[in-house]
Amino acid sequence: MNFTELDAKLQGRNKERRKFENNTYLERRDKNIVMKYHDTDVATFYPDNSMTLDSGGWHTITTKERINWALAGTGFLLTQDKGIWYLHKRGTDGSWWDKQNRLCRYTDGIIIKADGTVEGGLTETPNRIKADKALKAKVKKFAELCASRLPLDQPSGGDCWYCSMVDDKGVTWGDQVKDNDHLDKHMKEGYVVPSLVANALKQYYNAPMAFWQTFKDTGWGDGDRDFGKQAVTKAVYRYIMTRKGYAI
Prior knowledge:
single chain, alpha+beta, seven-stranded antiparallel β-sheet, globular, 2 domains
């Protein structure tokens, strides 16, 4: 897919905008054309037939799928391994998945030029692999800490503002400004934030039973909270890791 092909699609009454697939649209943006998924321009196509990719910070299955739609026909593919996205280039034998065909770790803003060269991305190094393991261990430890503190106080305005303040769509202040430093501070201080736990449960484990077993004053009393502990551990881990740019 490139600008020339998309320019031919955006004609007539659909000259400025047309639906591509579910929640995904092609739109003209000044002299360029974008593929927009929800509120994110996952791909920007330029008149010279180069393109820029952007996940909007959300390494989800559907976002990866949309980016791969944009990459169709280019000889490139976005893949995932152990929670990390990689940009692959089709091998001379037509293969995709071999690690030898990995060009780099994906980063938002990566540019694929019309001649097939790539700008941006990160080289896989032993230090990066070590850092991945260290982060996963730190986040897992914090998630288990949150679970060990059940039952938690109900979320309130006295919690971390980045975790507790939300807009009319329910998006936290931290997500709005893309500030994840507060998450690092919570993990370092061992600060179990009820609002953070509630946000994680809403996103990854939206079951009433999980909330009843997690927070005080739900009528659960001193009953068995094993289900709540499991839900909190999984949800908090996924919640933080996705905000650190990992696909979980």
